[in-house]
Design goal:
73% helix; Growth Hormone, Chain: A; 437 residues; mainly alpha; 16 helices
Amino acid sequence: MALSSPGAGNVGAAPDATAADPSAAPPAPGPAPAPAPGSDRAPARGLLPLLLVGNSAMYALYIGVAGILLALQVEDIDPANKVANFGLIAGVSAIFATVFNPVAGALSDRSGRRNPWILGGGLAAIPAMFLLGFADTILLITIAWCLGQAVMNVYQAAITSVVPDRVPTGARGKASAAVGLGLPFGSTLGALIGAAFSDDYRTGYLVFGAMVAGAAVLFTACTREERLPARAPLPVKAQLAAFASALKDHDFRWAFIGRALLVLGYFAVSGYQLYILQDHTVLPDGMEPEAAVAIMMPLTSVAMVLSTVVGGYLSDRFERRKLFVGASALLSAVALVIPAVSTSWTAMLVFAVVNGLAFGCYMAVDTALVTMVLPAAEDAARDMGVLNIANAGPQIVAPFIASVIVSVSGGYTALFIVAAVLAVAGALAVRPIRGVR
């Protein structure tokens, strides 16, 4: 899932990206500068619900397409090599997610605009999903999904940059909770729609594309954007140096490492969820794997909603971001061990709940933490794009690692163990951060 991130999103990344509006006229001389990210001004009325809608549509596409429809499409073409083929498609397409995140973020910083890229990326999801539905070879699926990842990451990074731009520091826990709630709501919707269109994935793809396009139109129509000061273009070499400079910041670097480790473990497992239910889990008689996904996802989503809201609120209340991030990462490791020691359907249901509690809290609070360790407020979107490499980058590695582990070990148990170890490492990575409690 380009969950992403989250993010990242991703993530989701899963796979984020923001970019400049090339058609926008240069700002008139002497306008009052827009408030710097993190100002004390309250977020605009209705912004948080719109962030929820925008992120829910995005995650619905990531879960429904990458988690169900794409896996079924790949299996239909070449059942014997589905694990290797799916890993190849996911890995190559994640490269596009990684590239589009920071580049588009820098472009939007330069123009001072976000909404045009939310709208452009959202509308472009429709033709991208149309092409994906008509792909009938592994090569064509790879090309089409790369295009889908590209446009979705333009959309994702643009909408992610809204939080550091328009939400004051003291309210970012609530804003991050609104963003984080998009994951459980979108995941449930994506699983249900994906299962409903499992026999007609072409229509399902178009439904998901239309959802993202509609969310983009709604968000940009209902939110007023104040142009940030435009920045002069930088040479490509200078842009690459600027991206690298963000990772020189001590706290930002450790936040990046922690996110990358946890996301790597998460996507190594979640990307193969349908195949895990087919080949690892002992399902009740008569239950199809697609139906099992549609049962598990609401359970995970309810747990995510609970932990996202509670985690975001408590992290604001006690001003302890690191504690919640570390604890939720460790809980994720516990969740991943459960299906490693049992192949029963009950174990998968328990995994769904515990994993939802862990990941919901992690994404909500870690997003708030990240916005507080950005190296420079004026480069917020660019640096969020760099951080989103921690969402998209591991997705490049995860499918290949997962397919190798499954092939060598002959099953999915070892994959769960490796993912749990990565989650523990992600929890330990937040300890060196000094600027946030």
